[in-house]
Amino acid sequence: MLNNIKEQLEKRDIKKGPTLAIQFACTYQGCDLEDDDAKRTVSKLISKRSYEQGIVLVKCPCEKLHLIADNLGWFGDEKNIEEILQARGDEVQRLDLNDIFSIA
């Protein structure tokens, strides 16, 4: 995950504002990728402003769009992935950038 996030940070224009990193495993049953978390894991940078005030969709390797945030109410009552997962009874883990490190 860290290498993918670092690459995205290096490519990103700093003027675009604060970003958030998200990582998840695609659980879409119609996904044609092997049922392996490593192959279905998605790491992306997203706009913090969009996550908190707009709509965020992330495309995974199987081409499925995953709803990450919907602060405009277009897709339902839950505002973001944290509320969506909590409503399903799933666990959400938030990390601060200072909490993430790599052991080589």
Describe what is shown at a glance.
The chain is of the alpha+beta class. The protein has four helices and four strands. A hairpin with a 5-residue loop joins β3 and β4 (65-70).
Explain this structure.
The protein has 104 residues and is an alpha+beta fold. It has one domain (2-99). It is 27% helix and 24% strand. The strands form two sheets. It has a two-stranded antiparallel ribbon with strand order 1-2. Strands 3-4 form a two-stranded antiparallel sheet. Strand 3 (55-59) and strand 4 form a beta hairpin. The longest helix has 10 residues, at 2-11. The radius of gyration is 14 Å and the shape is globular. The model has no long low-confidence stretch (mean pLDDT 76).
Helix content: 25-40%
What is the approximate shape? globular
For the biggest β-sheet, the strand order reads 1-2
The H/E string reads HEHEHEEH
Distance between the termini: 13 Å
**What is the typical, i.e. mean, pLDDT?**
76
Tell how many strands the DSSP assignment holds: 4
Determine the number of helices (DSSP H or I, runs of at least 4 residues). Answer: 4
Determine Rg (CA atoms, Å). 14 Å
What's the number of structural domains? 1
Based on helices, strands and strand pairing, what is the structural class?
A: alpha+beta
Main sheet: strands, sense, barrel: 2 strands, antiparallel
What amount of the residues lies in strands? 15-25%
Stretches where pLDDT is under 50 for at least 5 consecutive residues are: none
Task: Fill in the keyword field for this structure.
single chain, alpha+beta, two-stranded antiparallel ribbon
